[in-house]
Structure of Homoserine dehydrogenase:
Amino acid sequence: MMRTRPLKVALLGCGVVGSEVARIMTTHADDLTARIGAPVELAGVAVRRPSKVREGIDPALVTTDATALVKRGDIDVVVEVIGGIEPARTLITTAFEHGASVVSANKALLAQDGAALHAAAVEHGRDLYYEAAVAGAIPLIRPLRESLAGDKVNRVLGIVNGTTNFILDKMDTTGAGYQEALDEATALGYAEADPTADVEGFDAAAKAAILAGIAFHTRVRLDDVYREGMTEVTAADFKSAKEMGCTIKLLAICERAADGESVTARVHPAMIPLDHPLASVRGAYNAVFVESDAAGQLMFYGPGAGGAPTASAVLGDLVAVCRNRLGGATGPGDSAYTQLPVSPMGDVVTRYHISLDVADKPGVLAQVATVFAEHGVSIDTVRQSGKDGEASLVVVTHRAADAALTGTVDALRQLDTVRGVASIMRVEGE
Amino acid sequence: MMRTRPLKVALLGCGVVGSEVARIMTTHADDLTARIGAPVELAGVAVRRPSKVREGIDPALVTTDATALVKRGDIDVVVEVIGGIEPARTLITTAFEHGASVVSANKALLAQDGAALHAAAVEHGRDLYYEAAVAGAIPLIRPLRESLAGDKVNRVLGIVNGTTNFILDKMDTTGAGYQEALDEATALGYAEADPTADVEGFDAAAKAAILAGIAFHTRVRLDDVYREGMTEVTAADFKSAKEMGCTIKLLAICERAADGESVTARVHPAMIPLDHPLASVRGAYNAVFVESDAAGQLMFYGPGAGGAPTASAVLGDLVAVCRNRLGGATGPGDSAYTQLPVSPMGDVVTRYHISLDVADKPGVLAQVATVFAEHGVSIDTVRQSGKDGEASLVVVTHRAADAALTGTVDALRQLDTVRGVASIMRVEGE
């Protein structure tokens, strides 16, 4: 069974993830050989700073010319862990053109240009695998596109960004405010110097686009994903959540509409009940809940980032792609045959938790309730509390279209008796 | 891309799982066609009672002659959901001999004869997939053998039997005794009339053998798995567990020894800390924790049994096997290249929680502590309580070899001052 010519791997990028990939390829070489059926050899490593000392990597393999590396023609698999759109995109398509399969960890690129990249892979009869692009080490892409290939997925609900989960968990457990929790995340290395991509939900939105596409066998682009960050979540929101028996998580939610004719994808902070399995996901961990017709509720949990965990996912793909090459086959490709439209956020059906500062006088509740009724939004519970002429009103709604809820809030702001809308948060996972 | 000749599927068994497989093949036919790249057709259904009305299944497809069905020669995939050793084993090998690939949900057969069946699949260039054999709908076999193929798994720790988890959860939450909880499980259909296979751990042991084999790329037979049932777990044990900040679960535990040179597999009830993710797995759900070098800690959670969930796993395999056939390839096969020895239970390193009934007089603790010391078992905590000349002593040990712990308990039983050993339970997941 064993052939002796090694499969040649080109590594693009040698940062936190790339260096772990190279390390494991060396230390686990015998295991990889046994599992693939042939040895794998690191044939080149493209980096930006060639002078940096890289332990365990032969300096002769290091190059700054990534393009020449992917064009060599003897490369079986290109592992792309550079990130970002360019030059990653051009390098991947060039790799396909020169006969290589590709393993990528690049969520931004997959979310933006997945369709074109998949088409290029098919055109050249090569594989494009990207387990590491979503939720780090957690096997998620493969279960969705293979294990559940005979099922119908209706919902994907997940914590897919470790930085924001660390911050929210810290706020929840210590009562800290957002800035204080962010500072600690930064100090501990969980947040980057510029945390925008994480805290504004861009990172999670890219993952939501990828997950929705795979789960529903349709095309979901990054622009299709509704996105709200979590920078405005306050300690008071956590207090409200606790009163509801909930906590707050930044969730990526991909849903098939009740009629099955469209899908939605969104990222925003939301209250979820404490007894929901996602509520107990601590620190920088990720977890993704999947609901399907036949399997029911599944959850996948693990480290969502980090060099070694992400490298684990990359290497799992590398083994699969190498096996495919030896067998003269390709793995399951892109599947977007359902071509379902992506509905806007207004069509999403969900619940709201709304805190209002109102005048403390008779008739306010009646006025507020009338506004909800006029917009067709049914109220689940109302809690009033007040002193010194000021009062607060907490309204939790039944499920309604997001557009109706937004319209309700806009109208509430117009009421003289409503001094302000203190907070609005969706309630999920019930 | 689309070819028109359908792939032909023979279904062996049409009970709870088989009827769901047939139903989904019909209702989701268009989706399956799109995902596979060709239509799949139910070409025959082998049953024991042909006269039974089976909604949605063409009576012309039904036969009692399973052997003739798998020998037809035009069958692409045989789906075996009969269970048990024979005739399933002979039917599967006959299927390979006649050119079919096989999808099986048969944990007992895989645990006992997996090696021979895999060898038969390889000999005939066919696939043997069995995601449904372990933990129902939860994608577990595929993540272990594919997603983690580039990683080194050190430990698999799981709740893989829903019946026993339902019973233990009921005991935990209501304070019920074992028999009362079992009766409720039986009444609700979670336990069979003869619950032996579940409550004595035979079912979980078969799954442990399969998981250990895949996780460690070695051969683990059912006889290699140490097994203790959970029929002797008492309400008092749950009380002790709560005092430890723990609950009790029936766990399947597969471990690589610290030196990496051997593995162990075992099934027994154990205390696990309440903050361990497995502690909050409720009702009949299953969950499996996987620890590996690079990925760290992963968990997979979902329904571990039932017709539709198991059918979901079967159909995921069916899609994969059909794709492989269209591509002229086979999926990743059996991998037992490490050939690690399976160590006996005595070599397992774990902790014990021991409750002793002792005479209430001076010197008893010193005597007991001496016995632990003589066997090289270090004590973590001791708690004494007593009245009226009787006393109890609860000892929690540090990690030690199971043989040393067993020897300690045997020696304690010999002490005049030890009236009895009220309970012994291992402590895991810390």
